[in-house]
Write a structure and sequence with these properties.
This protein is an alpha/beta fold. Helices cover 31% and strands 24% of the residues. It contains seven helices and nine strands, in the order βββαββαβαααβαββα. The radius of gyration is 19 Å and the shape is globular.
Length: 225
Amino acid sequence: MHIRRPPPPRILVNNVSCMRNAQTVLRNINVSVHDGSALVLTGANGSGKTTFLRMLAGFSRPSAGEILWNGHDITSPGVYQQYKLQLNWLSLKDAIKSKFTVLENVQWYEVLEGKDGNASLPALELMGLGRLANEKPRMLSMGQRKRLQLARLLAIGRPIWLMDEPSVALDAEGVQLLEYIIAKHRKEGGIVFVTTHLPIEIEDAMYLRLPQRFPRRKTLVDLLD
């Protein structure tokens, strides 16, 4: 009888720790992530949520352990060149160019992907920004700027989303749109990593609550207080 084995995880975080400024930020993190999965990272400020995303993006290296993509260490130069093409990064910095129109701010990134730019307007319309496509970004509210970032994710179309506080500045309708595009992305086999302090409805998501950072050593300033 042939026993069908489950597929290996697309991304494996294997016993990962991270040091920053001589302090332990993350310790012994283990996560297995398959296609269509979502991982929600929660925890207090300074617990290492953004640090975790930055390691997944390859911006920084673990001080111990390894992050594997398709069974290969993402820090290996040859592997990382392929891995980074799978990633879509959404951070608190919106990287919106003021000299471009709203539409051009999406098309610019789409064209950089080697695409024709035709996905940009439908993405903006889905995020409720279609009527502002030809306006300059200075006309946008903070919530609309966040929607523009999300439209960019949709237009670029990479499979792994790394989302740092994606619901910040969004109104209730914006949060519903965020939940919708995450669900749609997962149904298409995409993977989503989300850090958040605010409630976001993500069906069957895995949750990882990071503990507060390990106490640092007291300095002379502490003793003087």
